[in-house]
């Protein structure tokens, strides 16, 4: 068997080899091959990494030899020699996972330096200060990443040195000071690890490669993988690349840029750079960088070349790119490119613009948007017309709004977040070690760092609001306070952030409903042209129905009537109805409810005129409308003790008696749904009459209304036949009374396994089915949702018994099978029989795909999820 090739030169790879070379390596290869200025380098494959772990952390056979052999090729190309005391080749060692994991694993720069090669570098560059600066950076990075020496020890030594010499900036340290610092650094290393800092470049390189491999399993990386559901067995590649230097003076620098604005999608180059700086200086937020456009003044030729390369890369990858570059003495080098992370808002704008620029197709545009990410856009925003107490402005790094208590460290953010508190994490800058706190925070505020700083990138990736580089904010970690001029913010004070403007506000702010941008509308219209699945909304009142229409719903798939019963002015009448001992008494209460219900239906049907509205008759058990038994007992006892009104007392005692009789051991499986209609036909008849009277009025007013009466919780054809007859009788009565003929249909919710199994028969007396997958999931799995999610669902997910929460993602293997049976049953009896879904699954992308595959007519979801459903339905078709 031929040995595996564990090492590739950049020119031997290409973009399609991501799984072998990692994202960074594959794109460096691609850039090399399309002729861009990439410093020569090589990539050690992910296979080598996986083999390394399989062999108990030993390098796979042949890897080292191949590494030295390919390094020779790099030496030839650069004209420098690794470890050579006169003309040393220095390299960076960079990790590169298959899926980009920003900031998750550390890069080592300037590797290959030691006491001799540093002199060679000083000689060959005629710049001793620079060479020493590289060396001290290298010792610090290598010791931190590879040897595990805490970097603050070096920072402290550096600060002390600057203080001694009375200088502010790192660049102001003299060569002598740097040389002393290097000595001190080595002492720190020796003290910490009990060994000399390794001087041999080959040893350095092998140690670094090993460290990159090992970092695949560091806690930061594991957290990131867990949050982003990245498999743990992909492994990381290692890129070894000849160094170029952005820290060689004022004609050198380093930066990062997006080819379009990752926050709002605008088609402008968007980035930052620092003159005379190296590597991570920009992202680490140590100095606040310059906007990329300023490079046109500093180095006009380089800027022009850079702009051209950005355009070229965008056309080549047909997507927005996130680019890292370095300028060494006026010469531009490309160090990385990848598809840039962006907010949902930007993703939509970029996709739509790219279709219009002729770069991608409409289908591609639609496929590129993650429907779940739209949630961000459909969230509420800050009402800027309200009075806002803005105390500071930072950079608008990640849009959205957030209010919460201030906390100054990630552990605290995590702890409070877990208690369900809303927190804003406030830091000078964030690092990958803060990730657990960022996850739990509502928003992030930093005082340093630009739009590409760690906080900004991570927040955008999570769709979380972030304001960064808020320089007027002075944070005192020890005192747990922050101040802006004379305003002091203490831990636990409430502040608000606006990630779209960068505003920082004291106190909580008012939020308003979102609107769909022009591009968003356009994308959704394209989606509508592609999809075959209809999209309706679940709405119980005219406001929600109006919102649903605005978001593009073509009808209501579920209008629940119980919420109408709960209104404060109705509950006493509803209770009167429940307390009724005789039929006439109940009729009297129902008569009072009738006009109220009629108004409800009138409002909703009117807003949705032209589209079907499925109205579900009363579903919950009656005791839900009575006060809680324990509370009643307390109230009665108090009344008795205070010698309260005897009439009130006897009324409460009556209610208590009734509540006790209605008490159920298992309400979910109790006296509810159509079982109420069977026991008390007059309730459903009243509801049917309210619907039909509203229909008559609206028809007379010239509205086209399409009512669909839906009977819940049916298990059998006979059950539905009886209730259907009731509804039809009422319809006949109303038609006779008003002299107006109107159309309506009667169907049922399919939400119990027996209904799925006997769907063929049920369809004989139904005009439509709508899956109620919340109950169908509960009854198919035998899980009560509230108990499962509160108590044991986590264990089922952790132990991988279930791959996802079946109340969120439709369980295709179980519930899905029953649905398939029901669809088949219904449509065999009546070809083209209408079937929809109105459970919460109707708004969840993977469940929507399943509904598409089942050939359902429509999905119905909450109004705010309608755009998500429209997009997901189109993706299911593509
Ligand atoms: P990350 O994945 O965290 O972005 P990178 O491997 O991209 O890490 O390295 C971070 C930064 O280090 C780069 O953006 C670049 O500025 C610098 N860097 C990496 N390799 C080189 C190199 N060969 N020459 C100069 N700078 C480099
Ligand atoms: Mg890094
Ligand atoms: Mg990078």
Any overview of this molecule?
The longest helix is centred in the C-terminal third of the chain and has 25 residues, at 583-607. The two termini are 42 Å apart. The model has no long low-confidence stretch (mean pLDDT 93). The chain is of the alpha/beta class. The chain has four domains: 35-40 and 73-242, Acyl-CoA Binding Protein; 253-339, ATP-grasp fold, B domain (D-amino Acid Aminotransferase, Chain A, domain 1), CATH 3.30.470.20; 399-512, Glucose Oxidase, domain 1 (3-Layer(bba) Sandwich); 531-561 and 599-617 and 680-877, Phosphoenolpyruvate-binding domains (TIM Barrel, Alpha-Beta Barrel). It is elongated. A hairpin with a 4-residue loop joins strand 23 and strand 24. It is built from 33 helices and 33 strands. It is 46% helix and 17% strand. It has an eight-stranded mixed sheet with strand order 14-24-23-16-17-18-19-15. It has an eight-stranded parallel beta barrel with strand order 26-27-28-29-30-31-32-33, surrounded by six helices. One magnesium ion binds at residues 324, 336. Mg(2+) binds at residues 751, 775. InterPro entries: ATP_grasp_subdomain_1, PEP-util_enz_mobile_dom, PEP_util_AS, PEP_util_C, PEP_util_CS, Phosphohistidine_dom_sf, PPDK_AMP/ATP-bd, Pyruvate_phosphate_dikinase. The active site is at 454 (tele-phosphohistidine intermediate), 838 (proton donor).
Give descriptors for this structure.
33 strands; binds magnesium ion; Acyl-CoA Binding Protein; 8-stranded parallel β-barrel; 878 residues; 33 helices; D-amino Acid Aminotransferase, Chain A, domain 1; binds adenosine-5'-diphosphate; alpha/beta; Glucose Oxidase, domain 1
């Amino acid at each position: 068997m031929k040995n595996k090739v564990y090492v590739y030169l950049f020119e031997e790879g290409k973009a399609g080899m991501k799984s072998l070379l990692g994202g960074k390596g594959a794109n460096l290869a691609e850039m090399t091959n399309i002729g861009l200025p990439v410093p020569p380098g090589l990539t050690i494959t992910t296979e080598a990494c996986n083999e390394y772990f399989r062999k108990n952390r030993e390098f796979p056979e042949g890897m080292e030899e191949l590494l030295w052999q390919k390094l020779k090729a790099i030496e030839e190309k650069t004209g420098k020699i690794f470890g050579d005391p006169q003309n040393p080749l220095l390299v960076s060692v960079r990790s590169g996972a298959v899926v980009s994991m920003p900031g998750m694993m550390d890069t080592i720069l300037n590797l290959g330096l030691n006491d001799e090669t540093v002199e060679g570098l000083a000689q060959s560059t005629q710049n001793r200060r620079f060479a020493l600066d590289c060396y001290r950076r290298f010792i610090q990075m290598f010791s931190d990443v590879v040897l595990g020496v805490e970097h603050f020890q070096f920072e402290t030594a550096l600060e002390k040195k600057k203080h001694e010499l009375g200088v502010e900036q790192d660049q102001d340290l003299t060569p002598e000071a740097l040389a002393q610092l290097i000595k001190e650094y080595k002492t720190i290393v020796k003290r910490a690890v009990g060994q000399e800092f390794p001087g041999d470049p080959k040893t350095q390189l092998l140690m670094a490669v090993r460290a990159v491999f090992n970092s695949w399993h560091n806690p930061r990386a594991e957290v990131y993988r867990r949050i982003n559901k990245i498999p743990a067995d992909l492994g990381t590649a290692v890129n070894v690349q000849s160094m170029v230097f952005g820290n060689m003076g004022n004609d050198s620098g380093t930066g990062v840029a997006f080819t379009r604005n990752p926050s709002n999608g605008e088609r402008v180059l968007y980035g930052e750079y620092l003159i005379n700086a190296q590597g991570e200086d920009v992202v680490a937020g140590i100095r606040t960088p310059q906007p990329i456009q300023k490079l046109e003044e500093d180095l006009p030729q380089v800027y022009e070349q850079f702009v051209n390369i950005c355009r070229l890369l965008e056309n080549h990858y047909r997507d927005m790119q996130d680019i890292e570059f370095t300028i060494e003495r006026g010469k531009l080098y490309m160090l990385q490119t990848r598809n840039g992370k962006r907010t949902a808002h930007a993703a939509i704008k970029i996709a739509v613009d790219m279709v219009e620029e002729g770069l991608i197709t409409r289908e591609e545009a639609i496929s590129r948007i993650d429907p779940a990410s739209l949630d961000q856009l459909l969230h509420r925003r800050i009402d800027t017309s309200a009075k806002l107490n803005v105390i500071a402005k930072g950079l608008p790094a990640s849009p959205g709004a957030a209010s919460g208590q201030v906390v100054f460290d990630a552990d605290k953010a995590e702890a409070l977040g877990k208690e369900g508190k809303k927190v804003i994490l406030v830091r000078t800058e964030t690092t990958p070690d803060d990730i657990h706190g960022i996850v739990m925070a509502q928003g992030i505020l930093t005082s340093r760092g630009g739009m590409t700083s760690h906080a900004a990138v991570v927040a955008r990736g999570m769709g979380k609001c972030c304001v960064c580089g808020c320089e007027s904010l002075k944070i005192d970690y020890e005192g747990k306070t922050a101040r802006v001029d004379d305003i002091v913010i203490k831990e636990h004070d409430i502040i608000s952030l606006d990630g779209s403007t960068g505003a920082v506000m004291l106190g909580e702010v008012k939020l308003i409903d979102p609107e769909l941008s022009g591009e968003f509308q356009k994308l959704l219209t394209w989606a509508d042209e592609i999809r075959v699945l209809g999209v309706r909304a679940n709405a119980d009142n005219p406001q929600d129905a109006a919102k649903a229409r605005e978001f593009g719903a073509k009808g209501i798939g579920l209008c629940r009537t119980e919420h109408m019963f709960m209104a404060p002015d109705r509950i006493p009448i509803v209770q009167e109805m429940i307390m009724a001992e005789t039929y006439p008494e109940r009729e009297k209460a129902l008569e009072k409810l009738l006009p109220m219900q009629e108004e409800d239906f009138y409002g909703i049907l009117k807003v949705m005129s032209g589209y079907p509205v499925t109205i579900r008759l009363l579903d919950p058990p009656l005791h839900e409308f009575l006060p809680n038994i324990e509370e009643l007992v307390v109230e009665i006892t108090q009344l008795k003790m205070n010698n309260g009104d005897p009439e009130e007392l006897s009324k409460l005692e009556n209610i208590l008696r009734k509540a006790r009789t209605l008490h159920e051991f298992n309400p979910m499986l109790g006296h509810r749904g159509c079982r109420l209609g069977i026991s008390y036909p007059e309730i459903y008849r009243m509801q049917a009459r309210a619907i039909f009277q509203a229909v008559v009025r609206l028809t007379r007013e010239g509205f086209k209304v399409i009512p669909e009466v839906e009977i819940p919780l049916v298990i059998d054809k006979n059950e539905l036949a009886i209730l259907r007859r009731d509804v039809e009788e009422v319809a006949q009565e109303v038609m006779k009374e008003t002299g107006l003929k109107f159309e309506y249909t009667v169907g049922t919710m399919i939400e119990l396994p027996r209904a799925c199994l006997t769907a063929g028969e049920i369809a004989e007396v139904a005009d439509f089915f709508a899956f109620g997958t919340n109950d169908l999931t509960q009854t198919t799995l035998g899980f009560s949702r509230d108990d499962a999610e509160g108590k044991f669902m986590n264990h089922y997910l952790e132990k991988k018994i279930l791959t996802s929460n079946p109340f969120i993602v439709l369980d295709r293997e179980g519930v899905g099978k029953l649905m398939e049976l029901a669809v088949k049953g219904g449509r065999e009896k009546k070809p083209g029989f209408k079937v929809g879904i109105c459970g919460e699954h109707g708004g969840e992308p993977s469940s929507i795909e399943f509904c598409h595959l089942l050939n359902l007519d429509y999905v119905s979801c909450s109004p705010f999820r309608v755009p998500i459903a429209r997009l997901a339905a189109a993706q299911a078709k593509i």
